[in-house]
Amino acid sequence: MIKRNRDAILSDSPRRRARFSLSRSQWMWATMGVVTAIAIAALAFANLREVYNSQKDFVVGLLASLAAVCFTKAFSRTRETHAVELIREDRPGPGLVADALDGLVRKRLDRKGVFEATALLHRNLEAAQDRLSEYYYAQAQHLEFYKHAPILRVVIADLDKVLGNIVRLQFGIGQLTGDRHGYSIAAKERHMLISILRDLRESVNRKDATYEALRTSGEHIVSPEAWDVFAVLSGDMLKAELALDSLLCEHIRFPPEESLRSVVGYLDAALKRAKEFRDAIGEPNCPMVFHIMMADLSSAIDALRQIDLPDAFTGSQTPAR
Predict the structure, then answer these.
(1) Which of 59, 118, 146, 234 makes the best surface tag, with the fewest CB within 10 Å?
(2) Other C-beta atoms lying within 10 Å of the C-beta of residue 15
């Protein structure tokens, strides 16, 4: 019984100390009151004694008023002042004050509809990005699409940046937790992917140069069936370029390993179509830039297969495109 009472007193003492604790400004006022009283007593002790003997009520009332002012200033609004100082300290790490403020802010944001608005904006941006990607994939097999593909990729990249900003905003206001805001790729693998993407874009440019060269001077060389094969080749390369670009965007929505397998699959298919096109028109009729393109595709496939991209996302899985 005694032990329980002692434990209860000890456990309650921090709360009592916190309840009656003083802030820095309050300690200053209390100290000034004590110092003032000591100074008056030391400097004018004799005069005060005479005044006190003749006017006791006046002296006692004056000292009592001065002490009341100092101690009232020191002990008034203790809780409010202490709370304001705790807020202004902004100490890192969890704490009762920080948790209470975070909860209050979240409730206020929820009442104002901020969470609902950001979630709706997030969903609409993802839907817009998906629709543009679908349009890109549908148009990729058109031979003239390469003229319009760059601007469409810029629009998709801009949407990704906006989506990344929204995700950071949701993460900052506590709407998303640390394990629910996307995937990540290590810096080493990211640099490797950047290098491969740069080479792949050069390969796409060589594919476009091949088309321009054969379109102007190879009407009698390339049959309609061969152009169909070249269109499939072009579509696979453009799809691979966009899929690889999605691995380097600001907000990675899909599992990196699955996206990487999709890129390798597109490039494998593109290399097969390139060989079919070469056989269809005859190797001597292929421009030199076409052979360089095929070598670049083969090198890109080998480089991609050497990259290991373990998923860095611990939340619910999202299906890959």
Answers:
(1) 59
(2) 9
